[in-house]
Amino acid sequence: MHDMPQTERCRTAIETSRHFREEVPDVVEKLVASCGAGTCFDHIGPEPIPSREAVIDLIHRINRLLYPGYFIRTRIEDFNLRYYFGQEATALFELLSEQITLAMRHDCVRHNLPCIQCEEQGQKAAISFMHELPNLRAVLATDIRAAFEGDPAAKGYDEIIFSYPGLLAVTIYRIAHRFFEQSVPLIPRIMSEHAHSVTGIDIHPSAHIGESFFIDHGTGVVVGETTEIGDRVRVYQGVTLGALSLPRNEVERLRTRKRHPTIEDDVIIYSGATILGGETVIGARSVIGGNVWLTESVPPDTRVYLKKPDLIYIGGTR
Amino acid sequence: MHDMPQTERCRTAIETSRHFREEVPDVVEKLVASCGAGTCFDHIGPEPIPSREAVIDLIHRINRLLYPGYFIRTRIEDFNLRYYFGQEATALFELLSEQITLAMRHDCVRHNLPCIQCEEQGQKAAISFMHELPNLRAVLATDIRAAFEGDPAAKGYDEIIFSYPGLLAVTIYRIAHRFFEQSVPLIPRIMSEHAHSVTGIDIHPSAHIGESFFIDHGTGVVVGETTEIGDRVRVYQGVTLGALSLPRNEVERLRTRKRHPTIEDDVIIYSGATILGGETVIGARSVIGGNVWLTESVPPDTRVYLKKPDLIYIGGTR
Amino acid sequence: MHDMPQTERCRTAIETSRHFREEVPDVVEKLVASCGAGTCFDHIGPEPIPSREAVIDLIHRINRLLYPGYFIRTRIEDFNLRYYFGQEATALFELLSEQITLAMRHDCVRHNLPCIQCEEQGQKAAISFMHELPNLRAVLATDIRAAFEGDPAAKGYDEIIFSYPGLLAVTIYRIAHRFFEQSVPLIPRIMSEHAHSVTGIDIHPSAHIGESFFIDHGTGVVVGETTEIGDRVRVYQGVTLGALSLPRNEVERLRTRKRHPTIEDDVIIYSGATILGGETVIGARSVIGGNVWLTESVPPDTRVYLKKPDLIYIGGTR
What we know:
Chains A, B, C: This is Serine O-acetyltransferase. Chains A, B, C: Keywords: Acyltransferase, Amino-acid biosynthesis, Transferase. Chains A, B, C: InterPro entries: LbH_SAT, Ser_AcTrfase_N_sf, Serine_acetyltransferase, Trimer_LpxA-like_sf. Chains A, B, C: Its EC number is 2.3.1.30. Three copies of one chain form a homotrimer. Helices cover 46% and strands 13% of the residues of chain A. By secondary structure, chain A is of the alpha/beta class. Chain A has two domains: 44-200, serine acetyltransferase, domain 1 (Orthogonal Bundle), CATH 1.10.3130; 207-309, Hexapeptide repeat proteins (UDP N-Acetylglucosamine Acyltransferase, domain 1, 3 Solenoid), CATH 2.160.10.10. Chain A is globular. The mean pLDDT of chain A is 90. At the B-C interface, helix 1, helix 2, helix 3, helix 9 and helix 10 of B face helix 4, helix 5, helix 6, helix 7 and strand 15 of C. Strand 14 of chain B pairs antiparallel with strand 15 of chain C.
């Protein structure tokens, strides 16, 4: 092609381009066909579903009400505080009602139920959640204090609110858990997996967690669906509170069972520890050492450590 | 400065500001000089390179074709399905062709090759990828079913498509792997590291992975470049399928060798397990327990567990 | 409600909606009250604080100066290089000065200090940081070369700059560490937690890290506040350089102590290893094997491995 005259090269290039472009309709027909085949997943029909993007926007909006003044670029002062809350709360009510309604309607359609009250139910759930905001703020204040008391690197409360992934994950968990308690479908899990994505901390919205909870560093933490955690518990990166191994074919039977452990008040669990099983109880004030693997209960006031592992040293002069 | 008259303070403040601002050109000259020195990295020249931002946009666009109706806020119904695919596919063809062309051109320049056909090749690779979309949809449907069957916490397929990081990572892997097979440079790795960033799951685009693959929780999972994984494999958070340690200076020799393990059909690997080495084969239907560290092969139908570690209990009453 | 005439159903729906909407002012009053109670956290007052969003924008802007040509969609060539740096540096100076000033002012208010010079100090810190940019570029070039030499999967330098999370985390660490050295409050930690969020790598801005530092894969890596790392160190995913366990009530005393280890030149630390304690020194050229747990020093030139753990094999035919 180097030797072609300029005009010819241009024409060739244009024709080539047209050639490939003309295959787009083939692709489109194949995609349409793949939707009718019944093997692939799609959401085609008159009922819309919640929007992942809109649910993430809701998280930001709720955060602005929970931590007023931290996540906006305008100033809040005493004289305009009521205007600020008024404007934010009004907008939140509309947007939250809409997404909850979509989630409920989607669930009705999925179960072939009539959906005459979804809109009303959506608004009811939205306002009921919003009445809880001051209580959420109070519980989150205990989490913030626990972070400051538990982390020698913390320089102040603002740093924690601004930047600690543990607090962000717990904040989103507490929001999602509230929606879970209200039996709102889909939205709690979208919220908790958003938290997982930005923090590396995976807390199922149906877990129960007491006040003054602190997760330090946090990447890799997993808190399973039926976990119960008391007050003033501290957890480090890479801790798994999980289920025992699942034999294939028993998954269905296990969907409704308590499969994850119970952690009582004032327990500390160091990095990389794994605690498994629905009947495992870690007694109050116990300390679980780093990398410990536990599938049985521990009485209160126990410290559990790994026996010093046998290390092999090669070279060096000790 | 407290006692200065107002006008004087203002002037001082303005002058100070001008003083620091006037140093900006010095900084600029130093930065220009640092580009000529040959020690720093920059991309200066007439040929543009792919845009990370544009490649991430491509992922979203491809996702909208793979899961129609899930990641948009408008409704798709039977009557407008063809219009939807038509519009999305046309736009994707243009944008994909452009980025692939840029990646190929960048590679030509880097190897001092002529680049007369990059644009045509880019369009060819784009349309060829798009013809694969229905097949990708079918394989991903097996992954979605595997997630539902493998996770007792899953409430339905929509929840998995909307929010499971494991599915997102596998979706992006399957997209990136297809581009890798087409020898498209740079773009597959940008895609897989985007997946790594949002899910904590690091799958190299050149790994081979069979159908019905499920990663639960997923944070910290690493699947190395030359890993081979069969069908119906399930993997949990923190699992590494990696290379044996690399003596310094041998890196160059290893660039083309199989360095990562082979996992046969129907294997389950629990959280935190590490399997290393290019000659390590985990036989079909085997189960690898949590935190197990393996550098040798395991025959089919084997269960491998850590011997219960010696724990030290202090205090408590057992 | 199924049997209601159409008009009545509509009226009921509108009234229901008005009913829930009318509760919004109650919620607003409760939120206002929760701010006066002294138990919750808020930032209400005339002084604004830095914006998380603006600080993340600063990271992107600084990245564009550190890696010219990589993260923009326009072309940089020799003839417009000075214009590019000039425009970007001017904008950076303004935006950086503003955020540093806000951070300093916020700190003054918090400690009840007068804040007459915050704006001047903010500009001074901004320009002083910018004078360091060419040096940062030179150090980052050593990190990029270390990544290429340490990873057999690396196909070229561009791939590393575009997509390696380890390089992104180290880049943001080096930026944040510079601000930390300038005693800029809040901003370094917001930056490092942004890096943590997008890479899963948690490096405290006050740690000391030498040149040619490479983190491979990286998810779950923690480098604590008082860690010291020499030159040419390589670290893999899941490595913790942390503090020994903190007895409750001793946190306050420990805030100013060296609590994290020292890693000398040319050390390699494989995935999942944990090294704890302020007096722990890993001697030069040592290699720490995967999953090793260390709370004591290791002399130079030592290789430390876990003794092969006792595994239990059930079934299979070996």
